[in-house]
Design brief:
about 190 residues, alpha+beta, 16-stranded antiparallel sheet, rod-shaped
Length: about 190
C-alpha cells in the first residue's frame, strides 16, 4: 500500500476524532438549553410536566414538619412548581396544625420555600388570617406576610403590615404597626 493511502487514513481518523469530541462538547454545553426551551414551550409540545393532586411532605426525623397538597402542579422554568389551590398544613412543636390555603402558590423544591400569591387564608386555633401574599422560608422555618393582613379571633381583630411567624415556637413579630380592635369586651376602664 502506498504512503499516500496511509496519510489519508491518518488524517481522516484525526478529523473523525476531533469532530466527535467537538460534537460531545456541543451536546454537553447545549443540553440544558434544549430542556428549558421544551419546558417553556407548553403542554401541547410535550415539555411541561403536570401532576394531579401532588403531595409534598417535610419531616425532621420521625416528626412531620409540614405537608403541602394541591389540586394540580405544573413544572415551571428553573424547576419551580406552580400549584393550583394549594393547602399547606404546618405543625408546631406541640403538634398543633396551622393551615395555609390560597388560589395559587409557587414551590421551590431546592430551597423548600413556598410562596402563596393570591387569596391567602391561614387558620390556627380560633384565629383566621387573610392576606394577599405569604411566604414560607424553609431555612428560617418562618412564615412571612410582606404586605397587609387581617387576623380575626373570637373577640379580637388585628390589622397590620409585615407579619413574621416562627413555625415551631409560634412567636410572631409585626414590622410596620398593628391595630387591634376588641369586639367582645364591655370593659369601660378601671380594673378589668
Amino acid at each position: 500500500m502506498s504512503q499516500r493511502f496511509w496519510t489519508w487514513v491518518k488524517w481522516a481518523s484525526l478529523a473523525i476524532s476531533v469532530g466527535s469530541i467537538g460534537l460531545a462538547v456541543a451536546l454537553m454545553v447545549f443540553k440544558d438549553h434544549g430542556i428549558h426551551l421544551m419546558r417553556a414551550s407548553g403542554p401541547e409540545k410535550g415539555g411541561q410536566t403536570r401532576v394531579e393532586k401532588p403531595l409534598i411532605v417535610e419531616r425532621k426525623g420521625d416528626r412531620l414538619v409540614w405537608r403541602l397538597k394541591a389540586d394540580k402542579a405544573e413544572q415551571q422554568l428553573q424547576g419551580k412548581l406552580l400549584l393550583t389551590r394549594p393547602v399547606l398544613e404546618m405543625f408546631t412543636a406541640n403538634n398543633e396544625m396551622v393551615t395555609v390555603s390560597g388560589a395559587r402558590a409557587r414551590f421551590d423544591p431546592l430551597r423548600r420555600n413556598i410562596a402563596f400569591d393570591s387569596q391567602v387564608k391561614v387558620v390556627y386555633r380560633h384565629w383566621k388570617l387573610s392576606c394577599d401574599s405569604l411566604v414560607y422560608v424553609s431555612s428560617k422555618d418562618e412564615l412571612t406576610v410582606p404586605g397587609s393582613f387581617v387576623a380575626t379571633g373570637d373577640k379580637l381583630v388585628a390589622k397590620g403590615k409585615g407579619l413574621r411567624v416562627q413555625r415551631e415556637t409560634q412567636q410572631l413579630w409585626v414590622d410596620h404597626g398593628i391595630r387591634i380592635e376588641d369586639r367582645g369586651s364591655a370593659w369601660t376602664g378601671g380594673q378589668p
